[in-house]
């Protein structure tokens, strides 16, 4: 079953307009990347622009959660369900239908179209949302409806604007496969897999001059939902980890073949990280996000360097991602034709960026290992800074290398050295061990033209979404 198509058709049949995925770079300086399907509708939800003639829409939105408030970069490779880039299916009502229909549609799609067994499904609602409770109990056993507080089940765009309780649908992957204390509903474990979040925008939040927040009921509430496609595919294929699904397996197999290493329990995380990061950086390149030292390009660089470092662990000493790119195209190229159309460009950019890091990674790793041998609790901030500044190791890469050893970087020292250096350089820094210079950009522009180029970025505040 093509779940993406099934979903969009399902909601089209319920009167929704099918809307294309918006770019990964939103037209919103406070938001690093498009991180949910609702982002392109934000101004409609707030009332800043009038609602469209058809007040209901559905989409399959490419999302990146690797920067800003939603950052899953560190989760990738450690959980079974997080990606830096993923596809979010969503249906939206702009002051049209509300809870009753949103819940009924979701339930119908999950139980009839996807044919997920009812005895594996659980739902969560907000503590105070008796209305959602009364609707849900028409569909599911009452003991399968669990209430949670604001932290889990209340959504807001920021301090002000539309907000409301949400209700999430979970799939129980079976007690027999999980043993951690975290594997309960609402925990961080993977037994109860969150698949779909239904947001009921029914309040407007305002803040007075003393900072007091007031919520008033919206006369015409709205609906925003989001379901992770990769998770649903994994469930349908009967695998417990997204990376074991057909979305990722061919890439992982290809990397296994290229590395000439066999997958083991110890190295499987590296294969997963590489497969994930290849997808994310390729899509980012396809949308004109290059590698660089600031803003979005720096996020892309961090993702790629994390992939290279895991490649290094698997024995790669020169660029390898381009060789797995065609496998990615085989999986997603028919839906995302830009991956095919820009294949040569993307492979070339991946390779150039990998080369930059492979040049210094050997030395960096040996400096890292020397320091590690001396480290008891806190890894030297000076060395972390040197790794960053001279060898191109992003701080989160160093932190990631220390994570399974339960060690932390002396961040205060790192930050101090960073500010000192910034003060010295005053403007955007140079000489960070990276060779991406204006010259590179110029030759790129000459070669590929200006149209897709997202150049210098300003610094971002935390996302408010
Ligand atoms: P989780 O608790 O698993 O981190 P979330 O509550 O942060 O998920 P939402 O913001 O509610 O996620 O997004 C809606 C849906 O998008 C989720 O129910 C999930 O199916 C999917 N999703 C969210 N983050 C990711 C991710 N990093 N990778 C893949 N799918 C994701
Ligand atoms: Mg999350
Ligand atoms: Mg969640
Ligand atoms: Mg959620």
UniProtKB/TrEMBL annotation:
One of its GO terms (cellular component) is cytosol. The keyword RNA-binding applies. Catalyzes the attachment of alanine to tRNA(Ala) in a two-step reaction: alanine is first activated by ATP to form Ala-AMP and then transferred to the acceptor end of tRNA(Ala). Also edits incorrectly charged Ser-tRNA(Ala) and Gly-tRNA(Ala) via its editing domain. Belongs to the class-II aminoacyl-tRNA synthetase family. Its EC number is 6.1.1.7. GO terms for biological process: alanyl-tRNA aminoacylation; negative regulation of DNA-templated transcription. Its main location: cytoplasm. Keywords: Aminoacyl-tRNA synthetase, ATP-binding, Coiled coil, Cytoplasm, Ligase, Metal-binding, Nucleotide-binding, Protein biosynthesis, RNA-binding, tRNA-binding, Zinc. Residues 1-465 form the Alanyl-transfer RNA synthetases family profile domain. It catalyses: tRNA(Ala) + L-alanine + ATP = L-alanyl-tRNA(Ala) + AMP + diphosphate. Its cofactor is Zn(2+). Binds 1 zinc ion per subunit. Consists of three domains; the N-terminal catalytic domain, the editing domain and the C-terminal C-Ala domain. The editing domain removes incorrectly charged amino acids, while the C-Ala domain, along with tRNA(Ala), serves as a bridge to cooperatively bring together the editing and aminoacylation centers thus stimulating deacylation of misacylated tRNAs. This is Alanine--tRNA ligase. One of its GO terms (molecular function) is tRNA binding. The gene is alaS. The keyword Metal-binding applies.
